[in-house]
């Protein structure tokens, strides 16, 4: 038997242009006859390495054979040596990445989705045709959608507004029904967790597998992820760094490693703004929103066993794989040469192309400066140069009816809702009040808190108009905030945000057009007094 071994000779020739002699020498051709082809050597090999239809293929690893369905492509993810990052941070240990984005649905959560469904099927709790509902940050939704599609369940995914467009589009493509909820506290009636339970009460034969409380979540990682790490590292692993969302991955992996490799340190990664870290002093922060998806919470999930991480939780930056990797750069500093640090990468940047790969999003969210190549003259001028009028602020108890009257009287479309303490609770807009009332979700007598819009961008007086323009490309307005350090009687301090104004595209346009008009007038005036050709070019405005 023969197998074609690809052996590119560096040349591309047309099949019909190849000399007859070359074909007779035992060369064959890869590709179509009239396309450009490369010559391929044919060499004799043993039959055991061949994959023939209808025959067993003992030499080929299980996963390269035909799989019965896509769910068989969950687990057994690659462990890859990271050769440059660790060295550039001065790490002496070997740095390895467990690439969970090679799971069929693209994330670590495929494992628990499959396990939760199959455990529930085995227990006779669910059967094909039933409805699966889950509150998720997206990845569990994609995993469940895949399992539901293969096994024949209806699937409803309830996810917060902040989750990336990519995840939402994949969920739609997988045929799930999507319910979006505002990014509120977990116990607010409109949170994704509460909305999921409300749906379950309304839909017959529906089930919430509940990744936050289901023991199958950590068990999936105890039985598979951790076993794979041990096998791939041949039992030699000194540190594993893992992001914590539900805490299933960190709990399952940590429990198995504590048993089989007790010296191994487990580092849980929790972002600023979350309350999951231990010791709890680490949770003190002024950050009120968590930008990274998938990790961090404002409650402690039941499946998270915080006693199993041998180190304090560390802080992450952005993107949960990036968070874990950046934390590993600090946590693994003490590991010696010959020791090993494994970082779990839960998903890939393909989930966040509209965010971390998008310069405009990065500028808008304050992660990047100055990427615009040809900046207009006003790009670096500070927001404080805008002529903003004093803001109109509403207290949360003001009724929707009163809010409409106030906004109409003052000629505003929107106003920030701010608590007595100064905490910015959200924005109320005329259109939001009206659409909520018309949809029957609120009454005119309800407090504005009921129709509050908490997805808004904040900007400071020191930010540039360039950053503001990036925000206004997608948002109708931004709240201009000013931060002050406030001290209490016992000496403790916190950052207090004060609303300085609300800025819209009209404010920016008015500023730009007025400044340009002023400049033209002064040039015309100079023109009339200077001899021809001696006019200086217009001076751009300074940035402060
Ligand atoms: C991107 C991403 N990273 C990390 C995690 C954390 O995984 P776990 O819920 O097992 O803690 C999740 C969970 O949803 C996730 O989506």
TrEMBL record:
<dbReference type="InterPro" id="IPR046342">
    <property type="entry name" value="CBS_dom_sf"/>
</dbReference>
<comment type="subunit">
    <text>Homotetramer.</text>
</comment>
<dbReference type="GO" id="GO:0046872">
    <property type="term" value="F:metal ion binding"/>
</dbReference>
<dbReference type="GO" id="GO:0005634">
    <property type="term" value="C:nucleus"/>
</dbReference>
<dbReference type="Pfam" id="PF00291">
    <property type="entry name" value="PALP"/>
</dbReference>
<comment type="similarity">
    <text>Belongs to the cysteine synthase/cystathionine beta-synthase family.</text>
</comment>
<keyword id="KW-0832">Ubl conjugation</keyword>
<keyword id="KW-0456">Lyase</keyword>
<keyword id="KW-0479">Metal-binding</keyword>
<keyword id="KW-1017">Isopeptide bond</keyword>
<keyword id="KW-0597">Phosphoprotein</keyword>
<feature type="domain" description="CBS">
    <location>
        <begin position="387"/>
        <end position="443"/>
    </location>
</feature>
<keyword id="KW-0028">Amino-acid biosynthesis</keyword>
<keyword id="KW-0663">Pyridoxal phosphate</keyword>
<dbReference type="InterPro" id="IPR050214">
    <property type="entry name" value="Cys_Synth/Cystath_Beta-Synth"/>
</dbReference>
<dbReference type="InterPro" id="IPR001216">
    <property type="entry name" value="P-phosphate_BS"/>
</dbReference>
<protein>
    <recommendedName>
        <fullName>Cystathionine beta-synthase</fullName>
        <ecNumber>4.2.1.22</ecNumber>
    </recommendedName>
</protein>
<keyword id="KW-0198">Cysteine biosynthesis</keyword>
<keyword id="KW-0963">Cytoplasm</keyword>
<dbReference type="GO" id="GO:0004122">
    <property type="term" value="F:cystathionine beta-synthase activity"/>
</dbReference>
<dbReference type="InterPro" id="IPR046353">
    <property type="entry name" value="CBS_C"/>
</dbReference>
<dbReference type="InterPro" id="IPR036052">
    <property type="entry name" value="TrpB-like_PALP_sf"/>
</dbReference>
<keyword id="KW-0539">Nucleus</keyword>
<dbReference type="GO" id="GO:0050667">
    <property type="term" value="P:homocysteine metabolic process"/>
</dbReference>
<dbReference type="Pfam" id="PF00571">
    <property type="entry name" value="CBS"/>
</dbReference>
<dbReference type="InterPro" id="IPR000644">
    <property type="entry name" value="CBS_dom"/>
</dbReference>
<keyword id="KW-0349">Heme</keyword>
<feature type="region of interest" description="Disordered">
    <location>
        <begin position="522"/>
        <end position="544"/>
    </location>
</feature>
<dbReference type="InterPro" id="IPR005857">
    <property type="entry name" value="Cysta_beta_synth"/>
</dbReference>
<dbReference type="GO" id="GO:0006535">
    <property type="term" value="P:cysteine biosynthetic process from serine"/>
</dbReference>
<dbReference type="GO" id="GO:0005737">
    <property type="term" value="C:cytoplasm"/>
</dbReference>
<dbReference type="GO" id="GO:0019343">
    <property type="term" value="P:cysteine biosynthetic process via cystathionine"/>
</dbReference>
<keyword id="KW-0129">CBS domain</keyword>
<comment type="function">
    <text>Hydro-lyase catalyzing the first step of the transsulfuration pathway, where the hydroxyl group of L-serine is displaced by L-homocysteine in a beta-replacement reaction to form L-cystathionine, the precursor of L-cysteine. This catabolic route allows the elimination of L-methionine and the toxic metabolite L-homocysteine. Also involved in the production of hydrogen sulfide, a gasotransmitter with signaling and cytoprotective effects on neurons.</text>
</comment>
<keyword id="KW-0408">Iron</keyword>
<comment type="pathway">
    <text>Amino-acid biosynthesis; L-cysteine biosynthesis; L-cysteine from L-homocysteine and L-serine: step 1/2.</text>
</comment>
<dbReference type="InterPro" id="IPR001926">
    <property type="entry name" value="TrpB-like_PALP"/>
</dbReference>
């Amino acid at each position: 038997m023969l197998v074609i071994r690809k052996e590119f000779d560096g040349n591309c020739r047309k099949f019909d242009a190849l000399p007859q002699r070359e074909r007779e020498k035992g060369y064959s051709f890869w590709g179509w006859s009239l396309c450009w082809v490369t010559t391929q050597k044919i060499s004799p090999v043993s039959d055991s390495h061949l994959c023939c239809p209808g025959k067993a293929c003992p030499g080929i690893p299980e996963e390269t054979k035909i799989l019965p369905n896509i769910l068989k492509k969950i687990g057994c993810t690659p462990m890859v040596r990271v050769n440059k990052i660790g060295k550039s941070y001065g790490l002496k240990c070997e740095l390895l990445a467990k690439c969970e984005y090679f799971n069929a649905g693209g994330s670590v959560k495929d494992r628990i989705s499959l396990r939760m469904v199959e455990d529930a099927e085995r227990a006779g709790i669910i059967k094909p045709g039933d409805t699966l509902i889950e509150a998720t940050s997206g990845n569990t939704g994609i995993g469940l959608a895949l399992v539901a599609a293969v096994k024949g369940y209806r699937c409803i995914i309830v996810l917060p507004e902040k989750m990336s467009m990519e995840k939402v589009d994949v969920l739609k493509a997988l045929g799930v029904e999507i319910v979006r909820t505002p990014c509120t506290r977990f116990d607010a009636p409109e949170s994704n967790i509460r909305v999921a339970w409300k749906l379950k009460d309304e839909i017959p034969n529906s089930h919430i597998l509940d990744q936050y409380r289901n023991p199958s979540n950590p068990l999936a990682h105890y039985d598979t992820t951790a076993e794979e790490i041990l096998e791939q590292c041949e039992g030699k692993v000194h540190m594993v760094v893992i992001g914590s969302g539900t805490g299933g991955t960190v709990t399952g992996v940590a429990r198995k490693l504590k048993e089989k490799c007790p010296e191994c340190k487990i580092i849980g990664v929790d972002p600023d703004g979350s309350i999951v870290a231990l010791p709890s002093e680490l949770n003190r922060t002024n950050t009120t929103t968590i930008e990274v998806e998938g990790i961090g919470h404002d409650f402690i999930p039941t499946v998270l066993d915080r006693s199993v991480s041998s180190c304090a939780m560390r802080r992450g930056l952005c993107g949960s794989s990036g968070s874990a990797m950046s934390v590993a750069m600090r946590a693994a500093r003490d590991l010696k040469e010959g020791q090993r640090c494994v970082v779990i990468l839960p998903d890939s940047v393909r989930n966040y192309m509209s965010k971390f790969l998008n310069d405009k999003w990065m500028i808008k969210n304050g992660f990047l400066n100055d990427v615009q190549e040809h900046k207009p003259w006003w790009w670096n001028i500070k927001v404080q140069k805008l002529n903003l009028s004093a803001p109109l602020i509403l207290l949360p108890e003001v009724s929707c009816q009163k809010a409409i009257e106030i906004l109409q009287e003052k000629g505003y479309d929107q106003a920030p809702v701010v608590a007595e303490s100064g905490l910015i609770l959200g924005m109320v807009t005329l259109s939001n009040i009206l659409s909520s009332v018309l949809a029957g979700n609120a009454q005119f007598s309800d407090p504005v808190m009921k129709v509050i819009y908490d997805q808004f961008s904040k900007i400071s007086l020191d930010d540039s108009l360039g950053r503001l323009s990036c925000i206004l490309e997608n948002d109708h307005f931004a709240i201009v905030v000013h931060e002050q350090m406030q001290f209490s009687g016992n000496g403790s301090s916190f950052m207090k945000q004060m609303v300085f104004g609300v800025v819209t595209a009209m404010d920016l346009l008015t500023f730009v057009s007025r400044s340009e008009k002023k400049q033209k007038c002064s040039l015309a005036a100079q023109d009339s007094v200077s001899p021809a050709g001696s006019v200086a070019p217009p001076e751009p405005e300074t940035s402060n």
